[in-house]
Every structure is written in C-alpha cells, then in structure tokens.
Design brief:
The complex is a heterodimer of chains A (196) and B (198).
Chain A (H helix, E strand, L loop, with lengths): L1 H5 L5 H9 L3 H23 L2 H17 L10 H22 L24 H12 L4 H12 L4 H8 L3 H30 L2
Chain B lengths: L3 H8 L5 H13 L1 H17 L10 H11 L3 H4 L8 H22 L8 H14 L7 H18 L7 H8 L6 H24 L1
Helix pairs in contact in B: 2-3, 8-10
Classes of the chains: A mainly alpha (196), B mainly alpha (198).
C-alpha cells in the first residue's frame, strides 16, 4: 500500500529499466506484484512448503542481478517464470543429492479406509491429486503448474519452457492421464476395502 | 463421443468457441459426458489451491538483500545441464593429445638393412617346395610379408622384383608353404600378444 502511494503504477518494462539502473525499490514492486504467483509456481514444482520462500527469494535476486539477460523480446513475466522454473528444477536437483526428506505432510494420501466407498468426493479428489502431483516427473509438474496455477495458455507455457505447443499438450495430457489413473486406482482400492 | 484430450482442452479453454459450445450442449443432454467432464474438472482443480503465501515482509527482505550487493551464492548458479559429457570429452581429448605427443616424439626406427630383407626372402625360398604357387598362396605370402613389415618393421613391403622372385619359385611343396605361413602367422600372433601385454 505504501509503495502504491509513493510510486505511480508502472508497467513491468518501466520497472525493468529502473532495475537495470540498480533500483532495488523497483525490484520490490516487482516482488509485490508477482510474489503470490511465483510462490504457487515454485510450490507446484518443488512441492515443499518449507523451501518455497528460499527459492522465491533466490529467483527475485537473480532477476535483480541478471536483469540484463532479459532481452525484452518476450514478456517480462514469461522470462520471470522461466527463471523461476529453472530455479525450482535446480533446487530439486540439489535436494535429490541430499538425503531424502518427506514432502508436504499435509498433502499425504489419506489413510486407506478413510475415503468414501462410492468414488472420491471432490474434496478428496483434490487431496489425492495434490499428493500424487509430487510423484509426477518434474517435466509434467512444471506444465501442470504453469497451466493450472498460473492459468497460462498453451502458447504461454510453451514460451516459458521454450518447448513447442505440441509438447505442452502432450505433457499436459500425459500428466493428467497419470493423475487420473492413480486416482482411479485409489478409488478402486478403497471400494474393494469397503466391499465385504 | 469426445476423447479425453478434447475434454481437457475444453476445460483449458483451448478449444475454438464453436467446438466448446458443441461439447457443452452435448453435456447438458448426456449425463455420462457431464460426469466425465466433472471428474476431469475435479482432477484439474486438485492441482490448485494449497500453495503457501509469502510471509510478512518478504518483499522488503528481498529488497534489502538486493541492496546488500551481490550475494555469492546467488551468482554461483549451478550449471543448467549435466556436464558429464564435457568431462568425458576433455579426458578423451587429453588422452588423444598425449598419444599424439608420444607418437610424434617417439624415435623412428631405422629401416631394416637390405641384407636382412634378402635373408628373409631366402628363408622363404628355402622353405618352399617344388609345388607351383597358386594366386591365393602368392597373396598370402605377400600379406604375411606386409603384415610382418607392419608388426615389427623388420621387413618392408616387398618390392615388385622381390615379389617376382618369390613367384618364380614354382616348385615347392604346399605343405612347406603352409608350414612357413602358419609359422609366420603364429609368430605374428605371439608378437601381438606380447605387445598387448606390454
């Protein structure tokens, strides 16, 4: 709110110009503008709440320090998302070299027998899907996150990830198919448990 | 009947409006289709929702860190792709370089003295029987001599005259030729093994 009062609303490219001149306050405006979306994006890929803030902070600092690598041929947010996706993937790589840690506890699968017998309810479906997303390969997670959490179109997802639209479509389709298969398997298993 | 990929595109709003309207109209009269779409929507919505939000003062902390300057850990970004292949290529290049260096610096062996060449040819002559040489045997003798030459540089590839000399020996027995050839081949194989062991 304070920022909005002291600084007129500026578009991304104006702020980029100021950041190029070393204006850290302009970076702050960018952070405030994009932090929620970036948290969601990073979380969608990293799937660990504890680590999201660290990764996000690194992403914004990279934006500040490497703003000159943004050539303004694409939209700023496309570039920002690309930096964030790469940072999240790097983070996963680093994490995979460390001893395994449990991902989000609250996103865990419900215990068997907790679920309703006749198919999963919408709330439960969401819960199971969230748990299963963590098990998807990163390349599926990133397209899913960009599409669902960020609401990007196929074209925009392709621009962020620098892949073709066809690849976006096929990865999305495979990711969802995998989620659906796991969900169906879970529902079947629950049904069989409930059936005497 | 609409396939799943089309239904996903419908939910993603990536279908042309006319196509989307057609499916939505069909779903209104087809409960099974409506249920399929609802199920996919539930999966789609499952991805949403529980992302954490920035803690209070996050933007201010980022700004403060940016003002601090250039944190080393931020600049030291790990390489985007695995560089294993680069390491392998570097090792191969270094190996190639060392091998080339060794070959270029290795003292060249002197040509075998002419009388030694002649002596080897005489050995062949003496070993050969009276049987005429076939074209195949001629080629074999030449191959042995050439191979021998390559292996230990003792005998150079025979000249046309020397070969003609060999070919002139028409009355030699095949057994002796075979014996000589097999001895030569065995000797070469032994040398190969010895070289490999080194």
């Amino acid at each position: 709110m304070l920022m909005e009062m002291t600084r007129p609303v500026q578009d991304d490219l104006e702020l980029v110009k100021l950041i190029r001149q070393g204006d850290a306050a302009a970076l702050r405006v960018i952070v405030e503008r994009y932090q929620d979306r970036l948290f969601a994006l990073i979380y969608g890929i990293v799937r660990d709440r504890q680590e999201v803030e660290d990764v996000a902070q690194d992403v914004f600092l990279k934006v500040y320090l490497r703003i000159n690598s943004f050539d303004e041929r694409s939209k700023f947010y496309t570039w920002l998302y690309r930096v964030a996706v790469n940072a999240a993937k790097d983070h996963i790589k680093k994490r995979s070299r460390r001893p395994a840690v449990a991902l989000d506890e609250d996103a865990g699968l419900p215990a068997q027998g907790d679920s309703p017998a006749a198919g999963a309810s919408t709330a439960e479906t969401r819960r199971i899907v969230r748990a299963e997303i963590a098990a998807l390969p990163v390349r599926y997670r990133e397209v899913l996150t960009l599409r669902e959490l960020e609401g990007l179109s196929y074209t925009e997802v392709a621009a962020v990830l620098q892949i073709s639209i066809g690849t976006v479509e096929s990865r999305l389709h495979r990711a969802r198919k995998q989620l659906k298969r796991r969900l169906d398997r879970y529902v079947r298993r629950s049904d069989s448990l409930e059936t005497p | 009947m609409f396939d799943e990929a089309t239904l996903w595109k419908l939910l993603d709003r990536e279908l042309p409006p006319t196509e989307a309207a057609r499916i939505e109209a069909a779903a209104r009269t087809d409960p099974a289709l409506a249920e399929r779409i609802a199920h996919l929507r539930a999966i789609k919505d499952g991805v949403l929702g529980d992302a954490p939000t920035p803690s209070a003062g996050f933007a201010a902390r980022v700004e403060a860190r940016a003002r601090e300057g250039t944190p080393f850990q931020v600049l030291a970004e790990p390489p985007r792709r695995s560089q294993t292949w680069l390491k392998v290529a570097a090792v191969l290049l270094i190996g190639l370089g060392i091998t080339n260096l060794y070959v270029s610096l290795r003292p060249l062996r002197a040509d075998p003295p002419p009388d030694l060449v002649q002596q080897r040819l005489d050995d062949y002559k003496n070993a050969l029987s009276d049987a005429p040489l076939t074209a195949l045997q001629t080629r074999q003798i030449r191959a042995v001599l050439v191979r021998h030459d390559k292996e230990d540089e003792l005998i150079r590839q025979p000249t046309a005259n020397q070969l003609r000399d060999i070919l002139a020996l028409e009355k030699r027995s095949r057994e002796k030729i075979r014996a000589v050839l097999s001895n030569e081949q065995r000797a070469i194989l032994d040398r190969d093994k010895a070289d490999n062991r080194k």
